[in-house]
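Work Package 4 report. The design task specified in the project plan requires that, given a folded chain encoded as structure tokens, an amino acid be chosen for each position. We show below one input record used in the internal validation round.
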């Protein structure tokens, strides 16, 4: 056997039978046993064994191992969506009467989970400006159980100093959770900085092709067992084997994609930052960002998403600009091949200029894998309409 083949077989093990190079898709809902004794043992060890696919599946195991290795954690657990992963991570670690301190302006459904859904079960939340770690410390109460971070957040791109926030949490014996979807484990490894649970919307960079909705969390083996035996199995929002297979495929090019957008995005940001019709760019790796130094310290390279504020007097101008773009799709998600645009004004009712947290002049841009010059040319022609 050649060295490389034995390496693959040894390294990847039983998820690669017959020397299959790609991981097989185990599209099965259950696993059969040769004896009652075997079945009894598998049931008793359900958090580790193959018993039923609302549980473990060899395609899941292959993906979990890779994700845990990427994030530097002992284990990982897969969910039907990023929101399911966020909900499981939070719910497994609070009870009636608990309090959570969360960075302000988290992902919208994380916000609803904490402020609406969990409020029905007596869980309280304080939202704080996460740019100053002291704000987390000041919000802590006797019933606080965890700090929830999202750095950077995905519309205004504010950072939290992860090391400082973990220090606050440890001082008070609190658990930390971070949403790391934007940075990916290749650009930011929160577990290395002491974060307990790292969650991802794998619908974004990890999938990478806008064809799967999926979520993951990376944590210790003990935390995986705890979440597996409660929220994972009872709420049942598990990943489909085919989604896991698509994510395994997406992971193979993650490094290339992340490198590519780290080259192209700063060029597009630079163009916009200098344009007279643009008031400001919100991008952690642009020198105008108030946390530029922190970005360079805790993230390995620039990401592919940012927002900018147009110099517009009315919403209709923002709409005209967005409608004129040819190379950017108007769509909500991100992480795939195509460049996208998401104007904040879509969050406003028509002719209603009231939104407590987002300026209607903001436009979020996701840079895909296209050529930077073509994207810049398109933005230039669209800005001429202002
Ligand atoms: C999209 C997103 C989520 C939710 O993930 P889904 O896979 O859509 O459920 C959570 N956090 C962030 C930062 C996201 O961008």
């Amino acid at each position: 056997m050649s060295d490389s083949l034995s390496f693959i077989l040894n390294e990847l093990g039983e998820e690669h039978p017959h020397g299959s190079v790609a991981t097989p898709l185990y599209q099965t809902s259950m696993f059969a046993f040769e004896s009652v004794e075997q079945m009894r043992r598998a049931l008793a060890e359900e958090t580790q064994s193959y018993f039923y696919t609302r549980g473990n599946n060899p395609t899941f195991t292959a993906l979990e191992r890779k994700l845990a290795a990427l994030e530097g954690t002992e284990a990982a657990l897969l969910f039907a969506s990023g929101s399911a992963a966020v909900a499981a991570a939070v719910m497994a670690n609070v009870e009636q009467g608990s309090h959570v301190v969360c960075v302000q302006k988290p992902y919208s459904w994380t916000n609803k989970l904490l402020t609406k859904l969990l409020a029905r079960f007596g869980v309280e939340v304080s939202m704080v400006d996460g740019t100053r770690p002291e704000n987390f410390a000041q919000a802590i109460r006797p019933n606080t159980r965890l700090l929830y971070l999202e750095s950077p957040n995905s519309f205004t791109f504010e950072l939290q100093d992860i090391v400082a926030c973990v220090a606050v949490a440890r001082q008070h014996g609190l658990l930390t959770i971070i949403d790391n979807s934007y940075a990916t484990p290749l650009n930011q490894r929160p577990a290395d900085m002491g974060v307990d649970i790292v969650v991802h919307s794998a619908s974004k960079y990890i999938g990478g092709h806008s064809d799967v909705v999926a979520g993951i969390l990376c944590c210790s083996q003990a935390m995986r067992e705890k979440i597996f035996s409660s929220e994972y199995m009872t709420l049942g929002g598990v990943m489909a084997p085919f989604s896991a297979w698509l994510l395994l495929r997406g992971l193979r090019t993650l490094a290339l994609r992340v490198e590519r957008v780290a080259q192209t995005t700063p060029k597009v940001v630079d163009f916009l930052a200098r344009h007279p019709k643009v008031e400001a760019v919100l991008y952690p790796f642009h020198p105008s960002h108030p946390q530029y130094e922190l970005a360079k310290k805790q993230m390995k390279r620039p990401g592919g998403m940012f927002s900018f504020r147009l110099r517009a007097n009315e919403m209709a101008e923002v709409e005209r600009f967005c409608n004129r773009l040819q190379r950017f799709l108007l769509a909500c998600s991100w992480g795939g091949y195509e460049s996208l645009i998401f104007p904040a004004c879509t969050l406003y009712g028509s002719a209603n200029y009231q939104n407590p947290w987002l300026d209607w002049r903001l436009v979020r841009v996701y840079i895909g894998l296209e050529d930077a010059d073509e994207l810049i040319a398109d933005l230039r022609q669209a800005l001429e309409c202002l």
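The CA atoms of residues 283 and 353 lie 24 Å apart. Validation will be extended to a larger panel in the next phase.
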